[in-house]
Amino acid sequence: MKLTQLIHYSTTKSLQIIKWIGFLFIYLFASGSLDIAGSYTALVQLRKVLGISLLLIAVVLGFIGWRYGKQLTITNPRHFGRSKATFSRISQLIIIFAVILIVQSVWGWLVVHHILDLPTNQKVINETVTHLPLWNNLFAIFLAPIFEELICRGIFMNYFFNKDNRLNNILAILASGMVFGFLHDMSFDVNWLLYSALGCLLAYTYIHFRDIRYSIALHVMNNLLSIL
């Protein structure tokens, strides 16, 4: 690789890293606005801040979704898009969900028997749900999966693993899974490994179906299971 090509590649990747972190930051900022709204006790103030928070979340989600779609119009070697929901595809999705159920069941058993501590991320969710339970549950079940799939799967893979070959796809699944684990648990312990395993399953779903709606659906089902 020539020096000019190396400089161009390094500059491009550095900008992509900064942009990806930017997407992650605005997601965390938008989701954190619900916590701010929940801290108000006066009904009038609560309604105003909640309204601003919901508007902010809608704007940020719309922007990230637009950016993901824009990326696919520029370069899309894996041909991601919308695919018809056939019986075969739904059956495959159910099988993947069954694997997630097994992981979650083992995980829950380890927590109940005090072999593992309850993940910090789950503790935070349990705490925030006590404030604005309806909106926080709706966000956790339906909106967080859309945000996280767009950022951790869609935009992440478009930036850093945008080639359609076996090695690149395997690396994309592993890297996306580990990033997902890191976002939910920074301790690099067994809980991190389990979060990363779930992230890998979601990443595999995205690449396998070539349609982000499938990984979003799987993520929604998983979060619903966690809330229940």
Note down, in words, how this protein is organized.
This protein is mainly alpha-helical and 228 residues long. It has one domain (3-227). The chain contains eight helices and no strands.
What brief labels describe this structure?
228 residues; mainly alpha; 8 helices; 82% helix; globular; protease; CAAX_protease; CAAX amino terminal protease family protein; transmembrane
Radius of gyration: 19 Å
Q: Estimate the global geometry from the Cα principal axes.
A: globular
The biggest sheet, with number of strands, parallel, antiparallel or mixed sense and barrel status, is: none
Structural class: mainly alpha
List the helices and strands and how they pair.
Blueprint (H helix, E strand, L loop, with lengths): L2 H36 L4 H32 L12 H26 L7 H10 L3 H28 L5 H19 L5 H20 L2 H16 L1
Q: What is shown here, in short?
A:
The chain is an all-alpha fold. It has helices at residues 3-38, 43-74, 87-112, 120-129, 133-160, 166-184, 190-209, 212-227.
